[in-house]
Amino acid sequence: MSLKHILGLDHVMVTVRDLDAAAAGWKRLGFTVSPRGTHSPHLGSGNYTIMFGEDYLELLGIITETEHNQPMRDFLKTREGVERVAFTTSDAAAGVLELQERGIDADGPVHFGRPVELPDGGVGEAKFNVFRWPLTEDPGGIRIFACQHLTRDTVWIPALQSHANGARRIIRLEVLSADPKAAAAHLGRLIDETAQSDGDGWSVPTGGNRADILFYDAAGFAGRYPDTVREGAASGGAVALILASDDLEGAKAALGPLAEAHDGALSVPAQAANGIIVSFLPQ
User: Fold this and answer.
1) Which one of 104, 138, 160 terminates a domain?
2) SS3 of residue 32 by DSSP
3) 128, 160, 192: which is the final residue of a domain?
4) Residue pLDDT tens, the chain, 283 long
5) Which of 64, 105, 111, 222, CA to CA, is 20 to 30 A from 282?
6) Domain limits at 80?
7) Are 178 and 267 within one domain?
8) Residues 191 and 255 in one domain
């Protein structure tokens, strides 16, 4: 029985050392990037978002060191990239109780917000309730949490949802693991979904029409991407993000010499996107 209060992948967080430089780099990849946001003080972080239809990417950086962002700082000691992912929850408080009833020591909910610059020149506020699975539960090296959006209109702003590269949604997050079957089963247990064999790896659906999370080993990773695309990727953890594009020619023009075509996809090397391969497939 699937979790009642988890609706699928909500957003993928790309944790970076230099937030403004990262935003400039993703703009060069043809993404429309939001104005910079600053989270509530106890979080000590700031962000830029890249919004799609139902999901999004978040570029996340440290502004002030706090107890809450210690795991982020530990991650950044060794690499940049996808440190955690969020699932959409319809009710954070109910989601915590649901996990606790299954013996999972969920933490939360925690309420926070950030100011948002609106297209009309005004300022709104994005508000959230979140909870997280225990930090020790990190299948394939990725931490997971759930996010309840209290003010969707200040996050999914239409002007931010159109991208020169045609990106429309997240199809898949790919994770490199020494034991992909075990990592996929681990995630499946945490979100009550069944891991499925998928060619060279193991895939876990996250719910509804949202993205899947695929786990594979080094051979599976090498089989999917040319050496030049894999350059700059980590030796484990999240290594590739697959996006649907409704304008692959526009993506090719936006990406310029960074783009490499292979197997019907257009990919950007990990070294050009804060340690994560960004690959576009026609929608």
Assistant:
1) 160
2) coil
3) 160
4) 579 999 999 999 999 999 999 999 999 999 999 999 888 788 888 999 999 999 999 999 999 998 888 989 999 999 999 999 999 999 999 999 999 999 999 999 999 888 898 888 899 999 999 999 999 999 999 999 999 999 999 999 999 999 999 999 999 999 999 999 999 999 999 999 999 999 899 999 999 899 999 999 999 999 999 999 999 999 999 999 999 999 999 999 999 999 999 999 999 999 999 999 999 999 8
5) 222
6) 6-160
7) yes
8) yes
What is the total count of domains within the chain?
Answer: 2
Long-range contacts formed by 156-162: CB under 8 A, 24+ apart: 156/51, 156/56, 157/34, 157/51, 157/116, 157/118, 157/119, 159/32, 159/119, 160/32, 160/34, 160/49, 160/50, 160/51, 161/32, 161/51, 161/52, 161/53, 162/32
* Radius of gyration (C-alpha) of the chain in whole angstroms: 18
From the list 148, 199, 203, the residue with the least C-alpha distance to 10 is 148
User: In this structure, is residue 30 part of a structural domain?
Assistant: yes
Report which residue type is found at 72.
M
Closest CA to 87 of 79, 95, 98: 95
Place of tokens 């026609």: 282
Q: Is residue 1 part of a domain?
A: no
- Is 22 a member of any domain? yes
CA distance linking residue 207 with residue 8, whole number of Å: 4
Task: Mark residue 43 as left, alpha or beta (left: phi above 0; alpha: psi -120 to 50; beta: remaining).
Answer: alpha
Structural element, H or E, at residue 78: none
At a CB cut-off of 8 Å and minimum separation 6, what does 117 contact? 35, 123
CB-based contacts of 220-228 (< 8 A; 24+ apart in sequence): 220/180, 221/174, 221/176, 224/174, 224/200, 224/263, 225/262, 225/267, 225/277, 225/279, 226/260, 226/262, 228/260, 228/269
